[in-house]
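Schema walk-through. Below, the input block comes first and the output block second. Nothing else is stored per chain. Lengths vary across the set, and this one has 273 residues.
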Amino acid sequence: MSDLMTQLKETAAYIQSKVNTTAKVGIVLGSGLGNLADVIKVEHAIAYTDIPHFPVSTVKGHGGKLLFGELGGTKVIVMSGRFHFYEGYDATQVVFPIRVMKLLGVETLLLSNAAGAVNANYKVGDLMILKDHISFFTANPLLGKNEEALGTRFPDMSEPYNPELIKKALAIAKANNILVHQGIYTAVTGPTFETHAEYQLIKIVGSDVVGMSTVQETIAAVHCGMKVFAVSVITDMGIREQHNIITHEEVLQAAKDAEPKLTLLFTELAKVV
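--- output ---
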């Protein structure tokens, strides 16, 4: 058994010794979206610092706990705070919790993130459902020896985001008068916000938003057979002619303001996955 699989199994065994979970749905909360955890009926919480082999989130606006409970009557495992490549973790460490969720029995992964818009039709506070992504600008978490116990060497990524989940989410949004876009997310390493030229490049290659997370998690989840659904909260307009200064505080506030819509969407979607 590889060192990675040994660590994954040790982590899963530790969690199972603390929590008797049967959750089939996993959720990852992005920047400024941690308050979604407040509507979860939390039965158990484990600090990342207590979990063997787990990284620790170092970013303001991210929690640091693995939550177990119910959302919309559905058993869920929730990452209140994720890990990023820009924090100094390698891609394998970034997706480590996703693979642990798989070993714990999670079959469907719901991802959220804060993103900057390059599509001029979007506005701050809007939601965008990911229908595809571009990952050329960040490290692929499957580099290196393939873990056959997790998935195939060459996984198909032609439909990384599950069409049926997207269809259900669109119906939920329509029924609740929530404006949602569908678009393409480009992942970059961060931690710097993009230059004017970089935003223009990202727009030219066909992306609607840009962010610093989600794609590596999606690749790992698809690799190990999970269904994935992801939503971006538009927290800033990347392409603007003047005053193109973006702060992390601005991003966190915009995410907080949009959080009720995301909470409703995830709560209702959890009921029907």
